[in-house]
Amino acid sequence: MILDFGIVLGRVAFVMMFILNLGGLLTWVERKQSAIMQDRIGANRASIFGLRIMGLFHPLADAIKMLTKEDFLPARADRFLFKLAPFVSVFFGLVAFASIPFGDTLRVGERVIPLQAVTLNVGLLYVFAMLSLGVYGVMMAGWSSANNYALLGGQRAAALMISAEIAIGASIMGVVMWYGSLSLQDIARAQGELLFGWIPKWGIITQPLAFILFLTAGIAATKRIPFDMPEGESEIIGYFVEYSGMKFGMFAMADFLETVVIAGLTTSLFLGGWQVPYLYDTGFRFPWGAALDLPHLLVVLLQVGSFSLKIVLMIFLMMLIRWTLPRFRYDQAMRLGWLGLFPLAILNIVITGAILLAWGTRP
Amino acid sequence: MKIAQRFYLREVLSGLVLTGRHFFANMGKHVAHALGRKNARGAVTIQYPEERRPLSPRLRSLHRLVRREDGSPRCVACMMCETVCPARCIYIVADEHPNPEIEKMPARFDIDLGKCVFCGFCVEACPEDAIRMDTGILEFSSYSRRGMIYTKEMLLALEPAGADGVPRSPVPIPPDRIV
After folding, report:
1. Cβ count within 10 A of residue A286
2. What residues in A contact B43, CB-CB < 8 Å?
3. Under CATH, which architecture does the B64-177 domain have?
4. Span B57-88, pLDDT tens digits
5. How large is the ipTM?
6. A324 Cβ under 8 Å from any chain B Cβ
7. What is the pTM of this model?
């Protein structure tokens, strides 16, 4: 009983540590990656006893700075909502990752431990719901600040979220139809099968259009450039104009957490989740007949490692996009969401349905 | 607008390829640098307090007063520089020179660097080549306006920059920065 409880706690703690540390590290990744892309060096001055280690202390310095800054409260703000908003944002960013599997099952003696924080058979809908709820924090912040620009930012966030969420929802429909499940673990398992005997049946291969649509809408859901209308630092500053100190930091953190969640969701839907090509429960089974038996623990470690690697690669890609593309104007983003992504996602559903019908059974 | 352009995708990809190529090329150079190839530079950054850009020899930097062989200023207090100065940052008080062959000398020669626009007119106007802007010193800052006023003694103590443009004399510390 206590052991069961400990295992559940361990699973939750693993996911929590994974996403929190990754999210914290992303401030460093963002600084350094953008710098290297732009032929710069990037922040490297924060040091402890002269030790700089490539600017890795900067997130720490940021945290100290934000915690010691004045926590400003506008005179006419709605005090309760104003204080609640950043927590809402971060909370939904944190819990969204819970149903994303980071590995198959781990067998210890009699026990079978599923490697995800919460085993939900509607895990996909859960992540989706938590992502959508995250925008409430932003809207609360915009409303409670008693600032027109903040309100504009909050409204833009809501509008962007609706247009992005619809595209996300419609694009994952194709994946759900193909793999026949709403459980992320089932979808990840199904992606281990082979197409024509040698191509891993990853979502990016079976649903290439959905992948592009999902990634685009997913980046929009993180509210970062090129879809940063809620923030729009060159025009309205956005929903967090009135925030300072750690509350402001929490909004920034929520953006990073959402980046991690979108990367995790993309990984488990389109990049095979924790699958390593040709790696099965007992070891590698290559399509040309070769086989390599591996102990169970090593297989699990490979799976978790592959999941982490894919997430890191996805985050790299998203950062690359963020530091490459100019931002969309507000109406352009709306047009892209409603007239670009959404019809294409519907088209994807229709094509997927037609293929499934023609195939007779699920391929 | 062509159909391909309406989908952004090709342009987005070509943009990503461009920035991605920069990332990996620079990353390779950084790694090569860390592994010992010191001439591989992954960034154009000059890390300022440790590294300095080489200065052009004609750069107008902090003024100095040229000395005679006996150490007295070459300046004869003709007021040319004070007159030509568009910012009116030079203040000279003339005095008799002990040597009868030399007409005058400055008793005070103050330059208010808070006002100076570094146009170099004073250098051009000087008939005696007594003031130059070749010290190579760029870091003169102060916590007060008074600290920006450089006196005759401070300006006389300065040396011209070396051939590589590196200052040879230390930056004079204004009185308000002496703790």
Report:
1. 12
2. 35-36, 39-41
3. 2-Layer Sandwich (3.30)
4. 888 999 999 999 888 899 999 999 999 999 99
5. 0.86
6. yes
7. 0.86
